[in-house]
Amino acid sequence: MTATAEHLTPNQQYRKLERMLHKLVHKYRRMLPMEDYDDLLSEAHVAYCIALNEFDPAKGKITTWVYWKVRGQLTHLARQRLRQSKRLTQHQIDRDFQAPDDPVRVAAAMDGDAGTAVRLALQGPGLNPEELADELAKLNWSGERIVRTFADLRKALR
Asked: Does residue 121 share a domain with residue 89?
C-alpha cells in the first residue's frame, strides 16, 4: 500500500517535491542570470513552506498547489528584479547624459558665463584659451570674470 502525498510526513513530502522545486528554480535561473541559484532555491523553499501551511486537501493535490505557489513566488521575484534593473538602467542613462565628457553636453547643461564661454568656443574656428579670452574681453567681460569662468569650466570638465 502506497501513501498519498497528503499522508506523508513533512520530510517525505519535501523529498517527493524536491525535484520539482529544483526544476522550477532552474527555469527561473535562466530568466534571472544575475541571481544566485541558492537565493532562488531559498525563495522556492519559503514558498513551499507557505504552500504547505495554506494547503487544503479538499481543493486538490498538494503537488499542484505547491507548484503554483512556488511558481508564483519566483515569477513575483523575477518581475521585481526586472523593475529594479529598469530603474538602474534609467538612472545610469540619466547619469551618463549629465557626464561632462562632451563639450556640447556641457554647454547645454551650463547657465550663465560658463555656458556662454563654451558656446563661443564651439562656434569659433578652434579658438585656444587666449583667443577665447580675447573674444570674451571684446564682449566687455572683466579679467576677473574670465578667470572665474575658466575655473568653473575646469571644475565642470573634471
From this structure: no
The C-alpha angle 127, 133, 139, rounded to 5 degrees, equals 110
Which run of H or E residues covers position 83?
helix 62-97
Is 1 a domain residue? no
Same domain, 27 and 51: yes
Note whether 76 and 20 are same-domain residues.
yes
Whole-model pTM?
Answer: 0.50
Q: Is residue 2 one of the residues assigned to a domain?
A: no
Residues 6+ apart with CB under 8 A from 114: 149, 152, 153, 156
- Domain-embedded: residue 3: no
Q: Please give the residue that has the higher pLDDT: either 102 or 73.
A: 73
The per-type count for the chain, helices as H runs and strands as E runs, is: 7, 0
- When pLDDT is averaged across residues 18-38 and rounded to a whole number, the result is 87
Which residue is associated with the grid cell 551618463?
96
The SS3 of residue 158 is coil
Measure CA 65 to chain center: 33
